[in-house]
Amino acid sequence: MKPNSEQDLAQLITDANGPLRIQGGGTRSYGHATGDVLDMSAMSGITLYEPGALTIVAKAGTPLSEINATLAAENQRLAFEPMDHRALLGTAGEPTIGGVVAANVSGPRRISVGACRDFLLGVRFIDGSGNIIKNGGRVMKNVTGYDLVKLLAGSYGTLGVLTEVSFKVLPNVASQTTLVLTGLDDAQAVHAMSAALSSPYEVTGAAHDPSAGKTRFRLEGFVDSVAYRAKELVQVLAPFGTPSEEDTDWAAIRDVSAFADQPGNVWQISVKPSDAPALVAQMGAKAVQYDWGGGLIWALTNGGDLRAKLGDLKGHATLIRGVADVPTFQPEPAPLAAISTGLRKKFDPRNILNRGLMA
Amino acid sequence: MEMPAPNASVLSRKDQIVSRLRAVLHDNAVISDEAETRAYECDALTAYRCPPLCAVLPSNTEEVAAVLKICHEMGVPVVPRGSGTSLAGGALPTADSVILGVAKMSAVIETNYPDRYIKVQTGRTNLSVTGAVETNGFFYAPDPSSQLACAIAGNIAMNSGGAHCLKYGVTTNNLLGVTMVMMDGTIVEIGGAHLDAGGLDLLGVICGSEGQLGVVTEATLRILPKPEGARPVLMGYDSNEVAGQVVTDIIKAGVLPVAIEFMDRPCIEATEAFAKAGYPMCEALLIVEVEGSDAEIDAQLALIMEIAAKHNPVELREAKSSDEAARIWLGRKSAFGAMGQINDYMCLDGTIPVSQLPYVLRRIGEMSAEYGLGVGNVFHAGDGNMHPLILFDANKPGDLELCEAFGADILRLCVEVGGCLTGEHGVGIEKRDLMTVQYDPADLEAQMAIKDVFDPAWLLNAAKVFPLASSEARRAA
């Protein structure tokens, strides 16, 4: 099934007599949705781009690469730096902007500028009953009615099939540099990242790789400004050592390339940074990577239920790669699970959209 | 503005309701005397007033839960209230409602600098959140102009913005977690000190739901390190078109100012007469502020001034000192007060795509002549959030209605050019009946379905946000 328009899609959903598995580029394969594939790739194209208003609107099946290229031509970008899951998950295909939104995918810059959902200004979608629904719009400030924009971001298609999304974009930067500290243990590394992120020097990436023993800090902006802030940040980091300036491939950090060629399950764990080192110590993973100043842990394991080792987790753990007899997403406390179930019943009463993916 | 008729059964049970509430709260936390409930008859949309059945001022989450449980059992409508600064009537009571005020709940529960958050009770004012962390070099970014008085509870309900959101975002971008009491008294924790939701983004839909989904009693807020410094530049132009083009050119040049403020001639004239900030008399005035170290500010302002100079400004003034910076901001910050000196005014906050600025300002000018009511425009140009201030005389019969009709026409125009009805004040009762201009029935149905899940009996602030005709069946059920 490959609809060409909102009307087609609405009709197709109305007429569906079984579950539908929504697919953009098919590159983010985690979770266990069942049903016939609903291929969104034909609903593609940028419908509006106003560089002077920092706004872009595109159909959900638009390739992310097309959006990135269009923005780059005007020296702008999606600031939340969406991760490319292909190498980690061993998938092929072309990531789409709808997929990015459905999974609320961000990257290292999430720690300073916000997540995909923070830049998302508007959505159009078809709910599980075939209704065409819009929310938000194309302007940066909009509190008109409830914010279904945030609700749809990260709902993995279980509330509706996205057809069009609009974003706030930001100017590209003239230069960047990375300061690197070596030899810190996890706890020291998180302290150092907290110190850097508490400084006024606008660190836009703070990641720690325990196996390489490297803690990295990214600065971006105008050339003189980056030079100045790098100098100041060296002072901030002095208690933890003397950082060196190194060329760093932040796309590799974003895409967790370190785990791409290693077998095992991969978990994505969101916690408050200062909790992270102790949790890592108790989870007994084969390897971990820290991003978001310690607030994001990527864990590589041999299988099993990582959550069982984390106790009463103040945060959430998602199984991104691998098979385990556990839910993909963090189980919610009963009252929240009841709300989530209630919302899904309202938006998809027949439970046909990505059935089984989130609950 | 029509409000639903009060429920006679609730009115007749007032004594019984009050006595049950008194049983779970301190005596002075239940206000039922008719003289005293008048203090809660309106918020900052003062044209509409109605004393509530009673008002309660609980001290903690458990007391809020006890109140809501009673109201739920007895079928009593509840209107949550922060500091009552809503310009949209978000806290306007109905005669059969209990006002649930969070004013007594203003404590700081936790500050955590390494993880960069603060947890507060939601009756705390916006400015005092920053007050609690600024000696450690941090601040809370959303800065609505009522920040001295407005409460975090109301900020979350309305997803409040401010002048600096081009860089820092609005409330929803700075809210990490909440403790919320559902209408049936259930206490839920959503989010926390970590980032992003593990399941559906319930936090995202609660923020901006205008107190219709639950009562948020505690909030975990992201705090940011204070920038080294900030400095504005002021520029004046002979036309709105040119000023609009300057805004676009600055944004396209890759500079991201923290604020770009715009004032039109009527507003400049009013503020000059009132505050004497030394603004040039011209059609359009821009204040652009950037942040960083002194050298970084110099570099950014040089780039901005270069762009500004290309468009033949009437005046181009860079703040060289904090004193000069304060003078540049003085007029802008007194704009509302200045307009208030002239007459009563109604403040709208529709948002438009920045590219539509000159057209929208021209149309507002034409409509102003048609309606015979003056209007001044002051707004956040970087994000297109307008603040037309329509002048009227509250003592002149028919003037308020004329002003409301003019305002509605401006908001229709905002939607027509691709914008929205409200950028930061919320819908409340003020824009409730215009929702159908922006949203189709299916769009509104999807939103109301969310309320059905959180508050199936439609007891929480139910006469707001949705046109009464759209929500009638649900409210009556």
From TrEMBL, chain A:
Keywords: FAD, Flavoprotein. The keyword Metal-binding does not apply. PROSITE patterns: FAD_PCMH (PS51387). SUPFAM superfamilies: FAD-binding/transporter-associated domain-like, FAD-linked oxidases, C-terminal domain. Signal peptide: none annotated. Pfam families: FAD_binding_4. One of its GO terms (molecular function) is catalytic activity. Gene3D superfamilies: 3.30.465.10. The keyword DNA-binding does not apply. This is Glycolate oxidase FAD binding subunit. It comes from Yoonia maritima. The lineage of its organism: Bacteria, Pseudomonadati, Pseudomonadota, Alphaproteobacteria, Rhodobacterales.
From TrEMBL, chain B:
InterPro entries: FAD-bd_oxidored_4_C (IPR004113), FAD-bd_PCMH (IPR016166), FAD-bd_PCMH-like_sf (IPR036318), FAD-bd_PCMH_sub2 (IPR016169), FAD-linked_Oxase-like_C (IPR016164), FAD-linked_OxidoTrans_Type4 (IPR051914), Oxid_FAD_bind_N (IPR006094), Vanillyl_alc_oxidase_C-sub2 (IPR016171). The keyword Oxidoreductase applies. Its cofactor is FAD. It comes from the Bacteria. This is Glycolate oxidase. PANTHER family: GLYCOLATE OXIDASE SUBUNIT GLCD. It comes from Yoonia maritima. GO terms for molecular function: FAD binding; oxidoreductase activity. Residues 48-226 form the FAD-binding PCMH-type domain. Keywords: FAD, Flavoprotein, Oxidoreductase. Gene3D superfamilies: 3.30.465.10, 3.30.70.2740, Vanillyl-alcohol Oxidase, Chain A, domain 4.
